[in-house]
Write a structure and sequence with these properties.
Helix content: 55-70%
Low-confidence stretches: none
Mean pLDDT: 92
Oligomer: single chain
Largest sheet: 2 strands, antiparallel
Strand content: 5-15%
Strand order of the largest sheet: 1-2
Amino acid sequence: MTRRRVSNPLALAVLACLTEKPMHPYEISTTLRTRGKERSIKLNYGSLYAVVESLQKHGLIAARETTRDGRRPERTVYEITGAGVEEFEDWLAELLSTPVRDFTSLEAGLSLMPGLPPDEVARLLDDRGVKLRSELRTLDAELAEAAAMHLPELFLVESTYRRHMVQAELAFVTELAQGIRSSAFPGTKTWRRLHELVAGGMSFEEIMADPVGLLGEEGAALRPQQ
């Protein structure tokens, strides 16, 4: 991925707003929230101002005018520059065309799950499934409401994508939990035996001194690499 002068995805959302018309930060925030973009891009007012300042510093947007409405504080209206238009188009094209390796919290947990007993992991995955089903119901309700309003799919595509991702994750964790609980998931029997030994008072170091003798042939994979 290209190294951007301003890399926060919120900056891309700001540039997107300013390609439509000049706006002040509060209007940008309101526009993004009205369109539900905070579901896809982390948005808070403090970080928005920092992003606007950074975009201005790098010449991607410029102050157009400062206005005051009654007793309210002054508001600076910003417009996108030519360099900003080029950055927006190039950045958006890259995001849509180039896969990147995102490290998710679930992947981190899965990579380290042998640290907990298998039945506990299965229970935790069941809990995750409950939350995912709840999110699916929320997404389905939102999409149904949007369909009733005859909103074009163009304005819902990120929600549709999110639904597909949640559905896939739910299917994965449900199958994994079932496989762990039944020991059909390869390695579960050795994993369970390992925790039984630890619960019985044996240290992990002691187990690693003779993994095959204590865990069977699958324990060979736990031998320290020479």
